Structure formats: C-alpha cells, structure tokens
Fold this sequence. Notes:
By secondary structure, the chain is an alpha/beta fold. It is built from ten helices and five strands; from the N terminus they run αααβαβααβαβααβα.
Amino acid sequence: MSDVEPPRDEAGPGDPNWHHSARVEYAMTRWETATPPRFRDAEATLPEVRAWADRALADPATAGAMLLTGLTGTGKTHQAYGALRHIAAGGPDRFELIAVNSADMYGQLRPSQVMGASERELKRLSTVQLLFLDDFGTSKTSEWTEEVTYRLINHRYNHCLPTIITSNLPARDADGPDLTDFVGDRVASRLAEMVTALVPMIGDDRRRGRGAA
Length: 213
C-alpha cells in the first residue's frame, strides 16, 4: 500500500485560497446589498481612508472610528463606501454592515405604535459589527436626539466596534458650529477617543460640477 497521499483538490474546501475566495464573495455580496446603486463603483482612493480600512480588516477591535468631514459634495460618502468595499474585498472572517443616513436613522428610532420597535432598532445599530453613519449632525438637535446618539455611540465605544461617520460639520471650529454642538459633550468626549482617522475633505461640490461646461 502506498504511503503517498493522493493530491488534494486545491479548488475546494481544505484549501486556504478557496476559503479566502469564499469569504470575499460573501462579504462583497453583503457590501453590495448595503450599498445604494449610486455608490457601487466606490473606491477608497485616499491613503488615510485605505489605511483605516486595512486596520479594520486586520483587527476590528482596535480600528476605532473614521470621521470624514467637509462641505456637501466633496466625496465623503464615496470614500466611506469605498473603505467598506476595501474591507469586504480583503475577505474578513466576519462581515456585518449597516449603512444609514442619520436623518433616516433618527426617523426609524422615533417611538412608534409598535411596542419595542425603536429599542430593537437601536440595539441593531449599536451592536452591528460595522456601522456607517452618513450626514451625521444634519438633524435638528434636541434632548431626545442627544440621548439616542449617546446610547448608540457609548455602546460602540465600550465594545470597540469600528464605525464610519461623515459630517458636513468640522470636528472642532472656534469660529462657528462644529460636531460637538450637535452631539453634546458626552458623545464628543467618546468620539475624541474613538476617532483614529480624521479625514477632512476639501474642494468644490462635485455634484454641481457635473455637466458644467
């Protein structure tokens, strides 16, 4: 009887490359499901955005949050979806994502006639592995929005969950409104420690420039 083992099929289970390809396929499918059609071609082209995505892929617990700031139309949302695509394309062991516009998020979290629906939604947003909050700081501030925001950010802060935030407001501005004015001191303190990549986006509104002569 021969001691030589038959060659293993490298195109199926048992081969590391096969498992990596399967993880990539699964993650990319989840990314496409969470990404609006307009951003399906998104790529992380900025070095600091790609660097944060690489950290989130290598060790999600230490990635912290990435905050992209800048005026409307400077490409913040495109870069954010590109970062998430970069993570998915790396074939992570786990890939769970919720991407939501902050105005829609607060709308979903407002008390309704369905008992416990808002609490279940808040828990879903608080505990998902990857959360992308778009246009953060555009909603009207109130005690209710501050409290909801605090509960959301505090949970993600305590459990070291990677988060991407885009905002038209600067992180700090001595001469005008900034993100602290919207979130309040408790959330601002946590964000100051959570944010490991602050990416200011500059330039003109790209949407208005399209089609211009």
